[in-house]
Amino acid sequence: RINKANKELFFRQISLEPWMEVYQATVEVKYNVFLESFLYYFNVNFPEVYLQTNYQKPIQWINQEILDGKKDILELSRLFRETRRDVVKRRLRRKKREVTNKINEAKKQYYDMKIAESDNCVKATWGIVNNEVGKQQQNLSNFRIKYNGELVTDPKMVCETFNHFFINIVRETVQPELENSLNKALNTDTTPDVSLTQQVFKFTPVTDKDIFNIINSFKNKNSTGYDDIPISLLKESKTFLLKPLTHIINSSLITGIFPRKLKIAKVIPVFKKGSTEEMGSYRP
Protein backbone atom coordinates (compact mmCIF):
# COMPACT_ATOMS: atom_id res chain seq x y z
CA ARG A 1 0.00 0.00 0.00
CA ILE A 2 1.25 3.45 -0.89
CA ASN A 3 0.16 6.32 1.31
CA LYS A 4 1.50 9.67 2.44
CA ALA A 5 3.20 8.32 5.57
CA ASN A 6 5.20 5.53 3.95
CA LYS A 7 6.02 7.72 0.95
CA GLU A 8 7.65 10.28 3.23
CA LEU A 9 9.69 7.53 4.88
CA PHE A 10 10.66 6.15 1.47
CA PHE A 11 11.82 9.57 0.24
CA ARG A 12 13.80 10.15 3.43
CA GLN A 13 15.59 6.81 3.14
CA ILE A 14 16.38 7.07 -0.55
CA SER A 15 17.64 10.65 -0.13
CA LEU A 16 20.30 9.32 2.28
CA GLU A 17 21.52 6.63 -0.13
CA PRO A 18 25.12 7.51 -1.21
CA TRP A 19 25.08 5.24 -4.32
CA MET A 20 28.82 4.60 -3.90
CA GLU A 21 28.68 1.15 -5.53
CA VAL A 22 26.95 2.68 -8.54
CA TYR A 23 29.78 5.13 -9.14
CA GLN A 24 32.53 2.52 -8.77
CA ALA A 25 31.22 -0.47 -10.74
CA THR A 26 31.01 -1.42 -14.41
CA VAL A 27 27.99 -0.26 -16.41
CA GLU A 28 26.14 -3.56 -16.11
CA VAL A 29 26.70 -3.69 -12.36
CA LYS A 30 25.94 0.02 -11.96
CA TYR A 31 22.37 -0.38 -13.12
CA ASN A 32 21.85 -3.66 -11.25
CA VAL A 33 22.98 -2.07 -7.99
CA PHE A 34 20.84 1.00 -8.63
CA LEU A 35 17.73 -1.07 -9.34
CA GLU A 36 18.30 -3.44 -6.43
CA SER A 37 18.79 -0.53 -4.02
CA PHE A 38 15.69 1.25 -5.25
CA LEU A 39 13.62 -1.94 -5.05
CA TYR A 40 14.91 -2.62 -1.54
CA TYR A 41 13.60 0.72 -0.25
CA PHE A 42 10.45 0.28 -2.30
CA ASN A 43 9.62 -3.18 -0.94
CA VAL A 44 10.49 -2.23 2.65
CA ASN A 45 8.24 0.81 2.66
CA PHE A 46 5.48 -0.49 0.40
CA PRO A 47 5.05 -4.19 1.26
CA GLU A 48 2.70 -6.11 -0.99
CA VAL A 49 -0.67 -6.74 0.62
CA TYR A 50 -3.23 -9.21 -0.68
CA LEU A 51 -6.83 -8.34 0.09
CA GLN A 52 -9.88 -10.46 -0.52
CA THR A 53 -13.11 -8.58 -0.25
CA ASN A 54 -16.62 -8.58 -1.58
CA TYR A 55 -16.73 -4.80 -1.59
CA GLN A 56 -18.63 -3.45 -4.56
CA LYS A 57 -17.67 -0.03 -5.81
CA PRO A 58 -20.63 2.37 -5.64
CA ILE A 59 -22.10 3.57 -8.92
CA GLN A 60 -20.76 7.09 -9.27
CA TRP A 61 -23.49 8.58 -11.42
CA ILE A 62 -26.39 7.77 -9.07
CA ASN A 63 -27.60 10.90 -7.29
CA GLN A 64 -30.20 11.57 -4.61
CA GLU A 65 -32.82 12.56 -7.17
CA ILE A 66 -32.56 9.14 -8.83
CA LEU A 67 -32.71 7.36 -5.47
CA ASP A 68 -35.82 9.31 -4.50
CA GLY A 69 -37.36 8.49 -7.88
CA LYS A 70 -36.75 4.78 -7.37
CA LYS A 71 -38.41 4.97 -3.96
CA ASP A 72 -41.43 6.61 -5.58
CA ILE A 73 -41.56 3.81 -8.16
CA LEU A 74 -41.52 1.16 -5.43
CA GLU A 75 -44.27 2.96 -3.54
CA LEU A 76 -46.44 3.40 -6.64
CA SER A 77 -45.88 -0.25 -7.58
CA ARG A 78 -47.05 -1.33 -4.14
CA LEU A 79 -50.06 0.98 -4.36
CA PHE A 80 -51.01 -0.34 -7.81
CA ARG A 81 -50.82 -3.96 -6.63
CA GLU A 82 -53.21 -3.11 -3.83
CA THR A 83 -55.69 -0.92 -5.72
CA ARG A 84 -55.32 -1.94 -9.41
CA ARG A 85 -56.47 1.58 -10.29
CA ASP A 86 -55.69 2.97 -13.76
CA VAL A 87 -54.78 6.38 -12.40
CA VAL A 88 -52.07 4.81 -10.24
CA LYS A 89 -50.86 2.77 -13.20
CA ARG A 90 -50.49 5.93 -15.31
CA ARG A 91 -48.61 7.68 -12.51
CA LEU A 92 -46.30 4.67 -12.23
CA ARG A 93 -45.52 4.68 -15.94
CA ARG A 94 -44.90 8.42 -15.90
CA LYS A 95 -42.57 8.12 -12.91
CA LYS A 96 -40.62 5.29 -14.57
CA ARG A 97 -40.08 7.43 -17.67
CA GLU A 98 -38.94 10.35 -15.53
CA VAL A 99 -36.44 8.23 -13.60
CA THR A 100 -35.14 6.60 -16.80
CA ASN A 101 -34.52 10.02 -18.34
CA LYS A 102 -32.77 11.20 -15.18
CA ILE A 103 -30.57 8.09 -15.18
CA ASN A 104 -29.60 8.62 -18.82
CA GLU A 105 -28.80 12.28 -18.19
CA ALA A 106 -26.79 11.50 -15.05
CA LYS A 107 -24.82 8.82 -16.91
CA LYS A 108 -24.12 11.17 -19.80
CA GLN A 109 -22.82 13.92 -17.52
CA TYR A 110 -20.67 11.49 -15.52
CA TYR A 111 -19.15 9.77 -18.56
CA ASP A 112 -18.54 13.09 -20.33
CA MET A 113 -16.64 14.24 -17.25
CA LYS A 114 -14.61 11.00 -17.09
CA ILE A 115 -13.60 11.29 -20.74
CA ALA A 116 -12.73 14.98 -20.39
CA GLU A 117 -10.52 14.30 -17.34
CA SER A 118 -8.80 11.28 -18.89
CA ASP A 119 -5.31 11.44 -20.40
CA ASN A 120 -6.39 8.90 -23.01
CA CYS A 121 -9.87 9.68 -24.33
CA VAL A 122 -10.03 6.61 -26.57
CA LYS A 123 -9.11 4.25 -23.75
CA ALA A 124 -11.58 5.92 -21.40
CA THR A 125 -14.34 5.69 -24.01
CA TRP A 126 -13.77 1.98 -24.60
CA GLY A 127 -13.70 1.40 -20.85
CA ILE A 128 -17.14 3.00 -20.61
CA VAL A 129 -18.45 0.97 -23.56
CA ASN A 130 -17.17 -2.29 -22.08
CA ASN A 131 -18.66 -1.39 -18.72
CA GLU A 132 -22.06 -0.63 -20.24
CA VAL A 133 -22.25 -3.79 -22.33
CA GLY A 134 -21.04 -5.88 -19.41
CA LYS A 135 -17.78 -6.99 -21.02
CA GLN A 136 -15.56 -8.55 -18.38
CA GLN A 137 -11.87 -9.30 -18.43
CA GLN A 138 -11.05 -12.79 -19.58
CA ASN A 139 -10.34 -15.42 -16.95
CA LEU A 140 -6.68 -16.16 -17.63
CA SER A 141 -6.76 -19.41 -15.65
CA ASN A 142 -8.64 -20.99 -18.58
CA PHE A 143 -6.71 -19.18 -21.31
CA ARG A 144 -5.28 -21.26 -24.13
CA ILE A 145 -3.55 -20.59 -27.42
CA LYS A 146 -2.72 -22.58 -30.55
CA TYR A 147 0.91 -22.94 -31.55
CA ASN A 148 2.23 -25.28 -34.25
CA GLY A 149 -1.11 -27.06 -34.31
CA GLU A 150 -1.14 -27.75 -30.57
CA LEU A 151 -3.08 -26.11 -27.75
CA VAL A 152 -0.95 -24.46 -25.07
CA THR A 153 -2.73 -24.08 -21.72
CA ASP A 154 0.02 -23.67 -19.13
CA PRO A 155 0.14 -19.92 -18.25
CA LYS A 156 3.94 -19.79 -18.26
CA MET A 157 4.14 -21.56 -21.61
CA VAL A 158 1.47 -19.24 -23.03
CA CYS A 159 3.66 -16.26 -22.07
CA GLU A 160 6.75 -17.86 -23.62
CA THR A 161 4.80 -18.69 -26.77
CA PHE A 162 3.56 -15.13 -27.17
CA ASN A 163 7.07 -13.83 -26.55
CA HIS A 164 8.49 -16.12 -29.23
CA PHE A 165 5.70 -15.19 -31.65
CA PHE A 166 6.08 -11.42 -31.28
CA ILE A 167 9.87 -11.58 -31.58
CA ASN A 168 9.84 -13.76 -34.67
CA ILE A 169 7.09 -11.87 -36.46
CA VAL A 170 9.44 -8.88 -36.58
CA ARG A 171 12.27 -11.03 -37.91
CA GLU A 172 10.04 -12.65 -40.50
CA THR A 173 8.21 -9.56 -41.76
CA VAL A 174 10.06 -6.35 -40.94
CA GLN A 175 13.69 -7.48 -41.12
CA PRO A 176 13.51 -8.96 -44.67
CA GLU A 177 12.02 -5.71 -45.96
CA LEU A 178 14.81 -3.71 -44.36
CA GLU A 179 17.42 -6.03 -45.87
CA ASN A 180 15.82 -5.75 -49.32
CA SER A 181 15.79 -1.98 -49.09
CA LEU A 182 19.44 -1.98 -48.03
CA ASN A 183 20.46 -4.32 -50.86
CA LYS A 184 18.66 -2.15 -53.42
CA ALA A 185 20.43 0.91 -52.11
CA LEU A 186 23.82 -0.81 -52.28
CA ASN A 187 23.24 -2.15 -55.81
CA THR A 188 22.25 1.17 -57.36
CA ASP A 189 24.60 2.79 -59.85
CA THR A 190 24.26 6.23 -58.35
CA THR A 191 27.37 7.85 -56.98
CA PRO A 192 27.27 7.99 -53.17
CA ASP A 193 27.10 11.37 -51.53
CA VAL A 194 30.58 11.93 -50.10
CA SER A 195 29.25 14.39 -47.54
CA LEU A 196 27.06 11.67 -46.04
CA THR A 197 29.96 9.25 -45.60
CA GLN A 198 31.98 11.90 -43.83
CA GLN A 199 29.32 12.62 -41.24
CA VAL A 200 30.02 11.37 -37.74
CA PHE A 201 27.31 10.29 -35.34
CA LYS A 202 27.97 10.66 -31.65
CA PHE A 203 26.12 10.95 -28.36
CA THR A 204 26.49 13.97 -26.14
CA PRO A 205 26.54 13.52 -22.37
CA VAL A 206 23.24 14.06 -20.60
CA THR A 207 22.79 16.36 -17.63
CA ASP A 208 20.72 16.19 -14.48
CA LYS A 209 18.37 18.70 -16.07
CA ASP A 210 17.88 16.45 -19.11
CA ILE A 211 16.93 13.50 -16.92
CA PHE A 212 14.70 15.69 -14.76
CA ASN A 213 12.78 16.91 -17.80
CA ILE A 214 12.41 13.41 -19.23
CA ILE A 215 11.05 11.94 -15.99
CA ASN A 216 8.85 14.97 -15.48
CA SER A 217 7.31 14.44 -18.93
CA PHE A 218 5.91 11.05 -17.90
CA LYS A 219 2.17 10.90 -17.37
CA ASN A 220 0.98 10.69 -13.78
CA LYS A 221 -0.12 7.07 -13.87
CA ASN A 222 0.12 4.16 -11.48
CA SER A 223 1.02 1.75 -14.27
CA THR A 224 4.20 -0.26 -13.74
CA GLY A 225 6.80 -2.19 -15.65
CA TYR A 226 8.10 -5.65 -14.80
CA ASP A 227 9.64 -4.21 -11.60
CA ASP A 228 6.20 -3.11 -10.26
CA ILE A 229 7.39 0.46 -9.61
CA PRO A 230 4.59 2.95 -10.35
CA ILE A 231 5.46 5.79 -12.70
CA SER A 232 3.82 8.26 -10.33
CA LEU A 233 6.21 7.26 -7.52
CA LEU A 234 9.19 7.47 -9.86
CA LYS A 235 8.20 11.03 -10.73
CA GLU A 236 7.85 12.00 -7.08
CA SER A 237 11.27 10.59 -6.19
CA LYS A 238 13.11 11.92 -9.26
CA THR A 239 15.06 14.54 -7.29
CA PHE A 240 16.86 11.79 -5.36
CA LEU A 241 17.60 9.71 -8.47
CA LEU A 242 19.04 12.29 -10.84
CA LYS A 243 22.72 11.87 -9.91
CA PRO A 244 22.94 8.06 -10.15
CA LEU A 245 20.74 7.90 -13.26
CA THR A 246 22.73 10.58 -15.07
CA HIS A 247 25.95 8.78 -14.18
CA ILE A 248 24.65 5.40 -15.40
CA ILE A 249 23.36 6.82 -18.69
CA ASN A 250 26.58 8.70 -19.44
CA SER A 251 28.64 5.62 -18.57
CA SER A 252 26.51 3.60 -20.96
CA LEU A 253 27.00 6.16 -23.75
CA ILE A 254 30.76 6.26 -23.22
CA THR A 255 31.28 2.49 -23.09
CA GLY A 256 28.58 1.47 -25.57
CA ILE A 257 27.20 -1.01 -23.05
CA PHE A 258 23.44 -1.14 -22.54
CA PRO A 259 22.35 -2.82 -19.26
CA ARG A 260 20.57 -6.12 -19.85
CA LYS A 261 17.76 -5.39 -17.42
CA LEU A 262 16.82 -2.31 -19.44
CA LYS A 263 16.17 -4.61 -22.39
CA ILE A 264 13.35 -6.34 -20.52
CA ALA A 265 9.88 -5.16 -21.51
CA LYS A 266 6.42 -5.85 -20.17
CA VAL A 267 4.36 -6.81 -23.22
CA ILE A 268 0.61 -7.42 -23.01
CA PRO A 269 -1.14 -9.20 -25.91
CA VAL A 270 -4.28 -7.23 -26.79
CA PHE A 271 -7.04 -9.13 -28.57
CA LYS A 272 -8.08 -7.58 -31.91
CA LYS A 273 -10.50 -9.91 -33.66
CA GLY A 274 -10.94 -13.49 -34.78
CA SER A 275 -10.40 -16.60 -32.70
CA THR A 276 -9.09 -16.09 -29.18
CA GLU A 277 -6.94 -19.19 -29.67
CA GLU A 278 -5.08 -17.82 -32.71
CA MET A 279 -1.92 -15.84 -31.99
CA GLY A 280 -2.47 -13.67 -35.04
CA SER A 281 -5.60 -12.30 -33.37
CA TYR A 282 -3.47 -10.36 -30.88
CA ARG A 283 -1.23 -7.32 -31.08
CA PRO A 284 1.53 -6.50 -28.57
UniProtKB/TrEMBL annotation:
<protein>
    <recommendedName>
        <fullName>Reverse transcriptase domain-containing protein</fullName>
    </recommendedName>
</protein>
<dbReference type="GO" id="GO:0007508">
    <property type="term" value="P:larval heart development"/>
</dbReference>
<dbReference type="GO" id="GO:0031012">
    <property type="term" value="C:extracellular matrix"/>
</dbReference>
<dbReference type="GO" id="GO:0061343">
    <property type="term" value="P:cell adhesion involved in heart morphogenesis"/>
</dbReference>
